[in-house]
Design brief:
The complex is a heterotrimer of chains A (554), B (116) and C (221). With 554 residues, chain A is an all-alpha fold. Chain A has one domain: Up-down Bundle (Cytochrome C Oxidase, Chain A), CATH 1.20.210.10. Chain A has helices spanning 27-31, 36-64, 75-94, 97-111, 119-141, 155-159, 164-191, 204-236, 249-283, 290-303, 319-347, 356-379, 381-387, 391-421, 427-454, 468-498, 538-553. Chain B has helices at residues 28-49, 56-76, 84-111. In chain B, helix 1 runs antiparallel to helix 2. Chain C has 221 residues and is mainly alpha-helical. Chain C has helices at residues 2-36, 38-46, 50-75, 79-109, 121-124, 130-135, 142-146, 148-181, 191-215. The chains are: A mainly alpha (554), B mainly alpha (116), C mainly alpha (221). Chains A and C meet through helix 7, helix 8 and helix 9 of A and helix 1 and helix 8 of C.
Chain lengths: 554, 116, 221
C-alpha cells in the first residue's frame, strides 16, 4: 500500500540537540514552565491517567451488565461507578483532551507565535485541572458519588448523602481550568498571529479551537453557578431548587444543561479541527469549502447555546418550549453536516493513503455521522419521549464522543506525535490498533442502539433477562475496545525510545508546524515567519521543496 | 491636578496602535459628570419606587439600572474609546446573558399555557 | 510590549464575560421566583433598609469614581494621586462591607436567614415587626409567607456572592496600594491598574442591578 511517509535517512538522522524538551532539565523546570509545549505534555500525561481510570470504571460497568441481575456489585455501588465514569470521562478527559494537549501545543505554532498570550495563566490552568482531578480522586476514595454525572436535583440536593459536595467543588475547579484555556486561546488567536497570517489563512484546527473557546468562556460559568447553588442548598438551606421551599428542581437542569450542551461542542469541535488537518494531509488536497468549514465551526458555537432544553423534554418543561428547542436542535445539526460534506468532497479525487491518523479519521466520519443522525431522532420530541433515558441515548453519545471525539483525539495524537516527540510511532501495529478499536467500538455500542429501542433503561444495574444477549455482545466488544486503547499507550511509550527519527515533515504536510524542527525549539521559530500563502497550499509546499533541493544541489 | 490632559481622538503619538487603546486618556471631567449622573439616577430610582406606577415600577427601576450600567461600561470602563473587538466582546457577553434569561423564562412563562 | 498590553485588557474582558454568565444564573433564578412569589418578595424587600441600601449604592458609585480617577492618575503618571485614589477606593470598599455586615447582622437577629432557624413571624404577623409595620404590610397567608425564605435565600446568595467579589477586590487593592507607593504603576506599566479597574467597575454594575431588584420591590403604597 502506498504511503506519504517520508523520513530522513535513519542512519544519519538525529533528534535536534536543542529542543523544548532538552532546553532545561529537572522537575521544577517542568512544573513551573511557561512553555505551552511543556504544559501540553503535562496535560497529556494527566489526561491519560484519568482516561485509564475512566476506562477501568467503564470496564466495571460492562462486567456488571453481563448478567441481568445486580450481582457483581450492589445497585448503589453501580450508581457510583457510572457516575464516576461520566464525571471522569467528561470533565477530566474529553473536555480538555484535544484543546489542552494538541491545542496548547500547536496553536501558537500554527499561527506563527512564540507562545500563547498568557503563559502563566496556561500553567495555572493545568494546576487547576490537577486540583480538580485530585478532588475527584478523593471523592472516589471517600466512597464516590451516585447522582449520575448530571447531578439532577432533588436527588443531588436532598435524597442522596454521598459526596456531592466534594464532586461539585472538583468540577467547579476543573471548570476554571477550562475557562482559562479558552480565554488564553481567544486572546492568542486574536492578538498574536504572525504577519500575513490573516483569519482566512488560519488552519481549520485553529478555527475550531476558537469556536470551542468561545463556548468554554461563556458556558462554563453557568455550570459553576449551578454547582454553587447545589452546594448552598446542601450546606445552608438556600432552597433555590427545593420544591418544599417553593423552588423548582427543573431550574437546576436549565442551568446545568445551558453549559452541558455547549460542552458537547466544546468536546467535539477541536476533534473536528483535527479531522480537517488529517483529511487534507492524507488526500493531498486542500479542504473543500474552507470558508464554509470555518464559519460552520462558529455557527455550531453560537447555535449550540440555543438548544439545551432538548435534554429536558420529559422533565416537565412547557410543551411550547419543547417545540422551539426541537426546531433549533434540527438547525444546529446543519453546520455539523456541512463539515461532513466538506470532508467528503475533500476526499473526492484526492490521493488518499491509509496511514493511522487517516484510519482514525475515516472511523470518525462514519461513526460521528451515525451518532449525529441518531441525535436527530432524539431532537424530535415525539421520538425522544420513547428513546430518552434508555440505552439509545447512551449509544448516541458514545458514538459521537467515543466513535467521534476519541477517534479524532487518537488521530491527532498519531498525526502530531512525530512533531511533539521527534519520533515516529510504529505504523503497522498502530494501524492494527485502529482497526481493533473500530471493531471493538461497533461491537460495544451498536447493540446499545437496539437495546434502547427495545426499551432497556439506562443507569440500571439490573435489567430484564431478555436484554442479556445484546449486553453480552456489548461487553465482549468493550473488551476488544480496551485492547485497542491499551495498544497506543504501549507503543507510543515504546516509540519515545525506539521510534524512527521523524524529521521536520514526515507527512509532507502544509502548516507552519511542519516547517520547523521536531521536537520544536522552546521559542518555536528561530525567526517569526511571514505568511504569504493560504492553508493547505500543497503547491506552495511543492515550490518550497523544489527551492530547497535547488539550494542544496548548488 | 493642573497638568494639561490629553485630548480625545486618535492623534496621539506615544504608543500608537491601531486599536485606539491607551491612546485615549479620559479626562477627569468626564468621570465627574458620569459619577454625578450615577448618584442622581440612584436618587431618582429610589424616589420612583415610592410612586404608584403599577407594572411600570419594575420597568422603570430596571431601565434606570440599565442606563447606569451603560454609562459605567462606556466611560468608567472606557468601552466608548475602545476597539471594535472590545465592543464586540461586551456585546457577545450581553447577548449570551440575555439568551440564558430569555430562553429559560420562555419555559416558565409558557407552562401555564397548558399542554397544547 | 504594546501587543502584550492590548492582550491583557482583552483577557480581562473575557474574564468579565465569565462573571456576567456566573451572575446570570442567579438573576435567572431571581426573575423566576419573583414572578411566582411576588407578594413574598414584596414583604421580603420591605425588610431591607432603604437607607443602608441607598447609602451603599452611593458608596460603591463613589468608589468606582475614585477607581476611574486612579486609572487616570496612573495614565498621567501621578504617583501621589494614584495612591490617594486607590486608598479611597479601598476605604469605600470597606465601608460597603461594613454596612453589609450591619445589614446581615440585623437579618440574623430577626431570623430571616434561610435554614433551620428561619422565622415567618414578620410576615404572618406584620405588626410584630418594625419594618413590616412601617411599610404597611398586610399579613401573608402561610404558604406565601414560607416563600419569603426563597427571597432571602436569593438575597444572601446574590449579595453574598457580590460581597465575596468585593472582598477579593479589596485584597487586591491593598496589594496595589503597596506597589503603587513603590512607583510600579507610574512608569508606563499601567495595565494592572486598568484591568483591576475593569473588575471593580463590573462589581459595581452587579450592585447597580442588585439594588433595585432586592431593595426597591413595591415600596409605594
Amino acid at each position: 500500500m502506498s504511503t506519504i511517509i517520508s523520513l530522513p535517512d535513519q542512519s544519519t538522522a538525529r533528534i535536534p540537540k536543542v529542543n523544548f524538551i532538552t532546553k532545561e532539565n529537572g522537575l521544577l523546570s517542568w512544573l513551573l514552565t511557561g512553555d505551552h509545549k511543556r504544559i501540553a505534555m503535562l496535560y497529556l500525561a494527566s489526561i491519560t491517567f484519568f482516561f485509564a481510570i475512566g476506562g477501568a470504571l467503564a470496564g466495571l460497568i460492562r462486567l456488571e451488565l453481563l448478567t441481568p441481575q445486580s450481582d457483581l456489585m450492589a445497585t448503589d455501588t453501580y450508581n457510583k461507578v457510572f457516575t464516576m465514569h461520566g464525571v471522569v470521562m467528561i470533565f477530566l478527559f474529553l473536555v480538555p483532551s484535544v484543546p489542552a494537549t494538541l491545542g496548547n501545543f500547536l496553536i501558537p505554532i500554527m499561527i506563527g507565535a512564540k507562545d500563547l498570550a498568557l503563559p502563566k495563566i496556561n500553567l495555572l490552568s493545568w494546576y487547576l485541572y490537577v486540583a480538580g482531578g485530585i478532588m475527584v480522586l478523593y471523592t472516589m476514595a471517600a466512597g464516590g458519588v451516585d447522582t449520575g454525572w448530571t447531578f439532577t436535583t432533588p436527588l443531588s440536593t436532598h435524597y442522596l448523602n454521598t459526596n456531592v459536595l466534594s464532586t461539585g467543588i472538583a468540577i467547579f475547579i476543573a471548570g476554571f481550568s477550562s475557562i482559562f484555556t479558552g480565554l488564553n486561546f481567544i486572546v492568542t488567536i486574536h492578538k498574536m498571529r504572525a504577519p500575513g497570517m490573516t483569519w482566512f489563512r488560519l488552519p481549520l484546527f485553529v478555527w475550531s479551537h476558537y469556536a470551542a473557546s468561545i463556548l468554554m468562556v461563556l458556558g462554563t460559568p453557568v455550570l459553576a453557578i449551578a454547582l454553587v447553588l447545589v452546594i448552598l442548598e446542601r450546606t445552608m438551606g438556600i432552597g433555590v431548587f427545593d420544591a418544599a421551599k417553593g423552588g423548582d428542581p427543573i431550574l437546576f437542569q436549565h442551568l446545568f444543561w445551558f453549559y452541558s450542551h455547549p460542552a458537547v461542542y466544546i468536546m467535539i469541535l477541536p476533534g473536528m479541527g483535527v479531522i480537517s488537518e488529517v483529511i487534507s494531509t492524507f488526500s493531498r488536497k486542500r479542504v473543500f469549502g474552507y470558508t464554509a468549514v470555518a464559519f460552520s465551526s462558529v455557527a455550531i458555537a453560537v447555535f449550540g447555546f440555543f438548544v439545551w432544553e432538548h435534554h429536558m423534554f420529559i422533565m416537565g418543561v412547557s410543551t411550547y418550549s419543547t417545540l422551539v428547542f426541537s426546531l433549533l436542535t434540527m438547525l444546529v445539526a446543519v453546520p455539523s453536516a456541512i463539515k461532513i460534506f466538506n470532508w467528503s468532497f475533500t476526499l473526492y479525487k484526492g490521493s488518499i493513503t491509509f496511514e493511522t491518523p487517516m484510519l482514525y479519521a475515516f472511523g470518525f466520519m462514519g461513526l460521528f455521522t451515525i451518532g449525529g443522525l441518531t441525535g436527530v431522532f432524539l431532537g424530535t420530541t415525539g421520538t425522544d419521549i420513547h428513546l430518552t433515558e434508555t440505552y439509545f441515548i447512551v449509544a448516541h453519545f458514545h458514538f459521537v464522543m467515543v466513535g467521534g471525539m476519541l477517534m479524532a483525539f487518537l488521530a491527532g495524537i498519531h498525526f502530531w506525535w512525530p512533531k511533539m516527540t521527534g519520533r515516529m510511532y510504529p505504523e503497522k501495529i498502530s494501524q492494527l490498533a485502529a482497526l481493533i478499536t473500530f471493531i471493538g467500538f461497533n461491537f460495544t455500542f451498536f447493540p446499545q442502539f437496539i437495546l434502547g429501542t427495545l426499551g432497556m433503561p439506562r443507569r440500571y444495574a439490573a435489567y430484564p433477562a431478555e436484554f442479556q444477549v445484546l449486553n453480552v455482545f456489548s461487553t465482549a466488544g468493550a473488551t476488544i475496545l480496551g485492547v485497542g486503547y491499551l495498544l497506543p499507550i504501549l507503543y507510543l511509550t515504546w516509540s519515545l525510545r525506539y521510534g524512527e527519527i521523524a524529521g521536520n515533515n514526515p507527512w509532507q504536510a502544509t502548516g507552519l508546524e511542519w516547517q520547523i524542527q521536531s521536537p520544536p525549539l522552546t521559542e518555536n521559530f528561530a525567526e517569526i515567519p511571514i505568511v504569504d500563502h493560504d492553508a493547505y497550499d500543497y503547491d506552495w509546499l511543492e515550490r518550497k521543496h523544489v527551492h530547497e533541493r535547488e539550494v542544496t544541489s548548488v | 491636578m493642573s497638568a494639561p490632559h490629553q485630548t480625545h481622538g486618535h492623534t496621539q503619538t506615544e504608543n500608537g496602535n491601531e486599536h485606539g487603546e491607551h491612546l485615549h486618556i479620559v479626562p477627569p471631567r468626564i468621570y465627574i459628570i458620569v459619577g454625578t449622573t450615577l448618584l442622581i439616577f440612584t436618587a431618582i430610582t429610589v424616589w420612583a419606587s415610592y410612586l404608584e406606577l403599577g407594572v411600570f415600577n419594575p420597568v422603570i427601576a430596571l431601565f434606570i439600572a440599565c442606563l447606569k450600567a451603560t454609562i459605567v461600561v462606556l466611560f468608567f470602563m472606557h468601552v466608548k474609546y475602545s476597539s471594535k473587538l472590545t465592543k464586540l466582546t461586551v456585546g457577545a457577553g450581553l447577548f449570551t446573558f440575555l439568551t440564558l434569561i430569555a430562553m429559560t423564562l420562555a419555559d416558565y412563562f409558557t407552562r401555564a399555557w397548558g399542554r397544547w | 510590549m504594546e501587543q502584550q498590553v492590548d492582550a491583557t485588557g482583552f483577557a480581562m474582558w473575557l474574564f468579565l464575560l465569565t462573571e456576567i454568565m456566573f451572575f446570570g444564573g442567579l438573576f435567572t433564578a431571581y426573575l423566576i421566583y419573583r414572578n411566582w412569589y411576588y407578594p413574598a418578595f414584596v414583604a421580603g424587600s420591605h425588610q431591607l433598609s432603604i437607607l443602608w441600601g441607598t447609602l451603599n449604592t452611593g458608596v460603591l458609585i463613589t468608589s468606582s469614581f475614585t477607581m476611574a480617577m486612579g486609572v487616570w492618575c496612573a495614565e498621567t503618571r501621578r504617583k501621589g494621586g494614584l495612591v490617594l485614589c486607590l486608598v479611597l477606593t479601598f476605604l469605600l470598599g470597606l465601608v460597603f462591607l461594613g454596612i453589609k455586615t450591619i445589614e446581615y447582622s440585623e437579618k440574623i437577629e430577626k431570623h430571616h436567614v434561610p435554614g433551620f432557624h428561619y422565622s415567618l413571624k414578620s410576615f404572618t404577623d406584620p405588626n410584630s415587626d418594625e419594618a413590616a409595620k412601617t411599610a404597611g404590610d398586610k399579613p401573608l397567608p402561610l404558604d406565601m409567607a414560607r416563600h419569603t425564605e426563597m427571597y432571602f435565600g436569593l438575597y444572601f446568595a446574590m449579595t453574598g456572592m457580590h460581597a465575596l467579589h468585593m472582598i477579593i477586590g479589596i485584597a487586591i487593592l491593598a496589594f496595589m496600594i503597596v506597589r503603587a507607593q513603590a512607583g510600579a504603576y507610574t512608569t508606563g506599566h499601567i495595565t494592572f491598574v486598568e484591568n483591576f479597574g475593569l473588575y471593580w467597575h463590573f462589581v459595581d454594575i452587579v450592585w447597580i442591578f442588585l439594588f433595585p431588584l432586592l431593595y426597591l420591590i413595591s415600596r409605594h403604597g
